[in-house]
């Protein structure tokens, strides 16, 4: 540790406090007589000076993560994206398919596109159009890539099975129709480790004695193995804005229009923790993996967007709060438990901020910000088992651009020079295998997701192709002619002109030899035909 003190005394004296502090900083081993000159205030001052030079920079292997927009050939164009103003993503993606809620007349519909078929979409492309009202939310099953759930204004939740290779005709018959809401169903959420459990939140009210307003909005828990609702959570007196499970699905965090954040036991429906955010309006909530933290996004009392971090076992006060900006769009949080990174993307914004989460102060460390001129209506997130491990891609968004009727991929990449598998960037992650059945979970069993390694999906770059590309480049005396490096002086310019002239003469000579060889072969061919 280095300490620097500046003496402001012109006559260096052993009785001058500033001089003694200066001497003690340069020579800590001075005798106690000189140190005794310092009073308590000067000693505290010297301690503070020493501590103030401690570095607050936090080293992180993700501080150079950058966003890369897919090329035009990798985008999906010509999609009539819905004009709904509901605060949802309207997009869902998995390693096989991309699903987008579309604008349609006479009911709700969404389009399903095979992920490996980008480009311009046919205007008559088949759609999933079985709902009688507008589609409000869609989510793929975390365990079966052909199963997708949708909720609609027609008060139903439907489960669809998409055939291999995608749709060949419009799909109107669902695999399962879940009827239980009396008004529109706005949100759906899959259980993170059980394939047979699905949650849906509606706008319907149920008269209760415990609710202050006399009614409560319902969250239904569906057992998909039997196709029935097994539990109703009626702890919210107003519209449920967001739902989030923890890692093993034993806890459910919800944000409500009544400005309260709740931690609920989903099996019993009991509210375990409740935060009354009187001065803020909480819009979105997400569990931060195994850190026992909950992150919320919302609006402060000054009408600015802010984020807050909470201890899931004590919601009396947030652990930290931070204001973001003064825009009005809803902030959507996306958490990656493998890298402990949180991404913040606002509806109508063109940027994506990303932070690294730590269990100690400062808890959230801003890494960087991805910026784009096109505003986003919603974002779909690829599961970790679908990212490109060979390119060190740790996260991938699919951005809905309504102005262009386009969906463009955005890859978040960690730059690495090594071509080997990066085990520190890609730890064991959640796979597509269900950890328990619906009956086991309802009976009280909790298990985390079944983890898999992404090393099997790693594809090493082809070094032969790289060598071939280098060999194809034309060089003269070790100088790359295709590099187009501008000369700095007239002498360098003259040398470059002479080199290019020499190269042109050689090419003309080679071309003349090839023309002569072609005429000779044509003559021999004519002689063979005549004989």
Task: Please supply descriptive tags for the structure shown above.
531 residues, alpha+beta, Methylamine Dehydrogenase, Chain H, 6-stranded mixed β-sheet, 4-stranded antiparallel β-sheet, 6 helices, 16% helix, 36% strand
Would you write up a description of this structure?
The chain has helices at 17-26, 32-35, 40-52, 438-442, 463-472, 490-530; strands at 66-69, 76-77, 91-93, 97-102, 108-114, 119-120, 127-131, 135-140, 147-152, 156-161, 176-179, 185-190, 197-207, 215-223, 228-236, 240-245, 252-256, 260-264, 271-276, 281-287, 293-299, 305-311, 320-325, 331-336, 341-346, 351-357, 364-371, 379-381, 393-401, 406-413, 429-430, 451-452, 475-476, 479-480. It has 531 residues and is α+β, with helices and mostly antiparallel strands. The strands form nine sheets. Strands 1, 2, 6, 28, 29 and 30 form a six-stranded mixed beta sheet that branches. Strands 3-4-5-7 form a four-stranded antiparallel beta sheet, with no helix packed on it. Strands 8-9-10-11 form a four-stranded antiparallel beta sheet, with no helix packed on it. A hairpin with a 5-residue loop joins β4 and β5. The N and C termini lie far apart (96 Å). Residues 1-38, 40-57, 209-214 and 463-484 have low confidence and may be disordered.
CATH level 1 class label of the largest domain:
Mainly Beta
The CATH topology name of the largest domain reads Methylamine Dehydrogenase, Chain H
Question: How is the biggest beta sheet arranged?
Answer: 6 strands, mixed
Mean pLDDT rating = 82
- How would you classify the helix and strand content by structural class? alpha+beta
- The global form is globular
Number of domains: 3
Number of β-strand runs: 34
CATH superfamily of the largest domain: YVTN repeat-like/Quinoprotein amine dehydrogenase
Please report the number of helical segments. 6
Instruction: Give the low-confidence spans.
Output: 1-38, 40-57, 209-214, 463-484
CA-CA gap between termini: 96 Å
Helix content: 10-25%
Proportion of beta-strand residues: 35-45%
- Computed over alpha carbons, the radius of gyration is 32 Å
CATH architectural name of the largest domain: 7 Propeller
């Amino acid at each position: 540790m280095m300490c620097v003190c500046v003496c402001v005394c012109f006559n260096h004296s052993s009785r001058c406090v500033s001089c003694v502090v200066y001497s003690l900083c340069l020579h800590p081993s001075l005798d106690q007589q000189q140190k005794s000159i310092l009073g308590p205030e000067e000693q505290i001052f010297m301690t503070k000076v020493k501590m103030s030079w401690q570095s607050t920079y936090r080293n992180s292997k993700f501080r150079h993560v950058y966003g890369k927009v897919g090329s035009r050939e990798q985008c999906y164009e010509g999609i009539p994206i819905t004009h709904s103003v509901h605060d949802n993503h309207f997009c869902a993606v998995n390693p096989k398919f991309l699903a987008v809620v579309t604008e349609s007349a006479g009911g709700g519909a969404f389009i399903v596109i095979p992920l490996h078929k980008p480009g311009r979409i046919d205007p008559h492309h088949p759609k999933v159009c079985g709902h009688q009202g507008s589609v409000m939310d869609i989510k793929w099953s975390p365990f079966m890539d052909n199963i997708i759930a949708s909720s609609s204004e027609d008060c139903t939740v439907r489960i669809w099975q998409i055939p291999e290779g995608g749709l060949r005709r419009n799909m109107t018959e669902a695999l399962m129709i879940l009827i239980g809401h009396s008004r529109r169903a706005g949100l759906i959420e899959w259980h993170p480790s059980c394939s047979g459990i699905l949650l849906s939140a509606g706008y319907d009210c149920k008269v209760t004695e415990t609710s202050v307003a006399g009614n409560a909005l319902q969250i239904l828990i569906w057992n998909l193995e039997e196709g029935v609702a097994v539990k109703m959570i009626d702890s919210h007196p107003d519209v449920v804005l967001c739902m989030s499970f923890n890692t093993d699905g034993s806890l459910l965090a919800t944000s409500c229009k009544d400005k309260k954040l709740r931690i609920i036991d989903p099996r019993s429906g009991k509210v375990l923790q409740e935060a009354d955010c009187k001065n803020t309006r909480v819009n979105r909530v997400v569990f931060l993996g195994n850190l026992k933290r909950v992150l919320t996004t919302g609006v402060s009392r000054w009408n600015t967007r802010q984020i807050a971090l909470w201890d899931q076992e004590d919601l009396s006060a947030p652990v930290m709060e931070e204001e973001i900006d003064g825009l009005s769009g809803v902030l959507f949080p996306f958490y990656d438990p493998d890298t402990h990174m949180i991404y913040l993307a606002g509806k109508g914004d063109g940027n994506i901020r990303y932070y690294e989460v730590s269990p100690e102060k400062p808890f959230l460390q801003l890494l960087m910000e991805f910026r784009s001129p096109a505003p986003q209506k919603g974002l779909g997130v690829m599961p970790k088992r679908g990212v490109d491990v060979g390119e060190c891609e740790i996260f991938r968004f699919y951005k809905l651009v309504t102005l262009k009727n386009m969906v463009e991929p955005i890859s978040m990449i960690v730059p690495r020079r090594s071509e080997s598998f990066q085990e520190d960037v890609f730890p064991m992650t959640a796979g597509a295998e269900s950890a328990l059945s619906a009956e086991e979970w309802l009976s009280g069993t909790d298990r985390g997701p079944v983890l898999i390694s992404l090393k099997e999906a790693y594809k090493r770059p082809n070094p032969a192709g790289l060598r071939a590309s280098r060999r194809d480049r034309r060089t003269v005396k070790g100088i790359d002619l295709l590099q187009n490096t501008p000369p700095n002086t007239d002498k360098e310019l003259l040398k470059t002109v002479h080199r290019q002239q020499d190269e042109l003469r050689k090419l003309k000579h080679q071309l003349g030899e090839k023309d002569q060889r072609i005429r000779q072969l044509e003559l021999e061919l004519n002689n063979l035909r005549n004989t």
